[in-house]
Design a protein that fits this description.
Length: 303
């Protein structure tokens, strides 16, 4: 639901600490192993081997050290990058300047997100409850229509082309009155949609970046969770369903307010992302003891 996205992330090189806190690497080991486990599972499931992942990490270590940890007014040398990363200086020299992986959203993903965000937010395209209206293909005057919706976001793509693509991707359906209805599946990229890979990288990046900033200094970003352990699978499913309703309400509200604010915004290079996640499991999928322990009592907390 991102109707206006920035193209570059802010350069934070000037305020990066050069000397890590005592035992910081040791404290990072356990949470990092837990964080990486589902990503390693995804790598294996997707066919990415360890050598391929190791090469990617090597390139990222060099790129981050080169750009994010440069000293103001001083040239970043191969020796210093080698010292920061532990990668041999000859390898650093080979990898420097290769450029960081590109995080730009594919054009089709950006357009789809922008049009859906407007359909969910703009008052002319929503009902009294804030739900997206069923839209005719075209309409007279200022009456809302799918053609008007697409044209309000871009005039570079024909509304018919967007409609045909969305029908093929099952993002919309045509009802008996020949009106176009947005389906709930449009809120989340499907398994057949390449956009899911873009959102995987963007959303996880922003979540981890917020958490990392909060751990490194005074908490700046809201990054909280409510969690309960040792509950029944039935209650877990009930809580998951209810939290899904609450999350969608929050996302729709934030989207409507952001979309309204865009009309008065002068534009710039800042970026904002508001995200939510829900997770539950019936068995230990993390390769270790669960929080609270198998025999522990029911417990809950906000963290």
């Amino acid at each position: 639901m991102n109707a206006k996205s920035g193209s570059k992330e802010a350069d934070k090189s000037a305020d990066k600490p050069m000397v890590p806190p005592p035992n910081a690497a040791g404290k990072l080991h356990a949470p990092l192993a837990r964080l990486l486990r589902p990503l390693v599972r995804l790598c294996i499931r997707s066919g990415m081997t360890f050598p391929a992942l190791a090469q990617l990490l090597r390139e990222l270590f060099v790129n981050v050290a080169e750009h994010d940890f440069a000293l103001e007014g001083k040239e970043q040398t191969d020796s210093r990058v080698s010292l920061l990363t532990g990668i041999h200086r000859k390898e650093v020299a080979r990898l420097r300047g290769a450029g960081a992986p590109v995080h730009e959203a594919p054009a089709a993903v950006s357009l789809t997100s922008a049009v859906i965000a407007r359909w969910l937010a703009a008052p002319e395209f929503t009902d009294a409850k804030g739900e997206p209206l069923a839209l005719p293909r075209t309409a007279e005057g200022d009456a809302p229509s799918f053609e008007q919706l697409v044209a309000s976001v871009t005039k570079d793509v024909r509304p018919r082309a967007v409609l045909d693509e969305w029908i093929d991707r099952k993002l919309v359906t045509i009802n008996d009155a020949d009106e176009i209805e947005l389906v709930e599946a449009a809120f989340v990229p499907s398994g057949e949609d390449d956009g899911k890979w873009h959102y995987l990288g963007r959303n996880l990046h922003d979540h981890i970046a917020a958490a990392a900033e909060n751990v490194a200094g005074a908490p700046r970003f809201l990054e909280r969770a409510v969690h309960y352990n040792n509950i029944s699978p039935k209650l877990a499913r009930k809580l998951e369903a209810r939290s899904r309703e609450l999350a969608m309400d929050a996302l729709k509200t934030a989207n409507r307010e952001a979309n309204r604010a865009l009309a008065k915004d002068k534009g710039g290079n800042a970026r904002w992302n508001f995200g939510l996640y829900i997770y539950s499991e019936d068995a230990d999928e993390e390769g270790g003891a669960k929080e609270g322990g198998k025999d522990g009592g029911k417990e809950g907390a906000s963290s």
